[in-house]
Amino acid sequence: MAEITASAVKALREKTGAGMIDCKNALVEANGDEAAAVEILRKKGIATADKKAGRVTAEGAVGSYIHMGGKVGVLVEINCESDFVARGDEFQQLVKDVAMHIAAADPRFTNRADVPAEEVAKEREILMEQLKNDPKNASKPADVLDKIIDGRLNKFYEENVLVDQPFVKDPAKTVGELVTEKIASIKENISIRRFSRFKMGEGIDKKADDFASEVASMVG
Fold first, then answer.
1. At a CB cut-off of 8 Å and minimum separation 6, what does 91 contact?
2. Where do the domains of the chain lie?
3. Residue 27 has pLDDT above 70, yes or no
4. 115-157 pLDDT per residue, tens
5. The model's pTM
6. Using CA atoms, how far apart are residues 160 and 197, in angstroms rounded to an integer?
7. May I ask the CATH class of domain 1-47?
8. Which of 196, 195, 191, 197 is closest to 59 using CA atoms?
């Protein structure tokens, strides 16, 4: 049996839009043959996201979720191709699930493309300084350090980018993989366009309570 490498799984995922586990299983079944693995995924209805990615998503829904007794609220817009699908139970459940995920996971960006280039550059700079300050990395060449940084940047994306975050209801897959599954199931292109997350009191400078003064005023 051919060895299934992480890079092969990643390449198949990028080509088909299928989940990591589905890609690995397809490669195992295809004995490492990428073309055969693509066909396996297509036959299973999984590798449809790549074919639909360019199709216009002008319909959809704006969903909301309120959590913690009104302390946290979310609005999210998810688009699809037809009003018929937008009104369907499966799509509506997706909107609800993603809104709930945003409330719980607090992402900062929708996609990696939304992360400002200067923030990525700053993150790389910080990571490089951390590596250089570790004596274990003194003899490692620059290209090796770059690969380590790329791996740690993926962690940054997993924490901050919605589609890269592990889905709160099923951490074995990301939110992006959840959307890919729905594209295969619903047979339409689907995209998360934007979201807003609100937390009561966020950004307000709250006055620190002077406990001693408060007690004094109560007894005086």
1. 60, 61, 78, 80, 85, 182, 186, 190
2. 1-47, 116-157
3. yes
4. 999 999 999 999 888 888 888 877 888 888 888 888 889 999 9
5. 0.69
6. 13
7. mainly alpha
8. 191
